[in-house]
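User: For my dataset I need records formatted as: sequence, then structure tokens, nothing else. Please produce one.
Assistant:
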Amino acid sequence: MRTQSRRRPPGALLATAAAGTLLAPLLSGCWAGAGGLGQGGDSINVLMVNNPQMTDLQKLTAEHFTRETGIKVNFTVLPENDVRDKISQDFANQAGQYDVATLSNYEIPIYARNGWLHELGSYAKKDSGFDQQDILAPMRESLTGDDGKLYGEPFYGESSFLMYRKDVFARKGLTMPAHPTWQQVADLAAKADGAQPGMKGICLRGLPGWGELMAPLTTVVNTFGGTWFDQDWNARLGDKGFKDATKFYVDLVREHGESGAAQSGFAECLNNLTQGKTAMWYDATSAAGSLESAKSPVKGKIGYVPAPVERTRNSGWLYTWAWGVQKASHNPDRAWKFVSWASGKGYEKLVGEQVGWSDVPAGKRASTYEIPAYRNEAAAFQEQTRAAIAGARPRDPGVQKRPAPGIQFVGIPEFTDLGTKVSQEISAAIAGRQSVDTAIAKSQKLASEITKEYEGR
């Protein structure tokens, strides 16, 4: 989100929605577009997160989609946690109030498994102008269901990488490896600590949340050789790989990380790097747009290298906000026309010309990286972003086989609750309220409850 990032990573989600259980009462929506929600006719209803890329789309729709197709789009726009709750209620009940919704690569395979989504591959195949093969392969894979069918189209995508102050490193005589290991990063963080008054060596998320602290930490777990569950659904948080990664992460942020780390998430780390309070930051590739914006005080001063590794070749995560069409939609054909436009090649060109090339919802199409204007505007990070996404392996992110897809999450409905509870324990270790061993012991017990539900499947 441009107010915080172009996409703040996931917060709370459906722990029980996949089983059809309704979630908490919803906040009222923010209505946009002429009139309210309608059923059928020449209109569709779109429920989406209030991220800046989506608000750009909202502003462009009437003139550039409705005028051309005659299809009016009624938008309901909500903050991330609220929109997830509202989507889960409407889709779980197949109420059909919304034709299209913003879903991530976490939800789409789960929703597809439950029969809540329209299959989109057949639409894409018949839409000659859409060019499904232009969608980056990891994105296509992450939006595919267990049956091999496509259930979502990405609006924009991201991975993760390491960002660092090139000027600070130069003054300190430090060299960032082209492909750093986590141990090299820890050594550099120690040397960069105090490079400027009040500057810490690195910023890492410590804020509780399955999509806050657990997103970067799980990628560290993967490359250290750990996993949440083995192929037979046995909880493995107490194993060496998970414990070593967690201890490394906690020690690094406690010794050389930002102040108040236990309450620092994406937004806080973005502010810290922008304001010169940290020399490095490991996080979402989408952050680069804010760091390189015209008003950023660190524009041109940031270097970008792949996510640090230990035992794996790559370790960057994979995330996309994508469009899903509800199975109960009254207007699936018109819904596809909207999806095709919003995720199409022409839309990216439109945003570049009307809003700005740094605001293009990139990270989903190979062709985006061939546009000269975009390449020039995003020169500092566009190749690194594309490489990070291309190297992501959502079905094989570690050193052992996994029972469910996901890099920075485990692709099961229960992970929202489990991941958040585990993050609370580890955040408490970052804050110094308990040891890492105690946090891991509690977390292993929590994960073992999931084992009881899945063993034998």
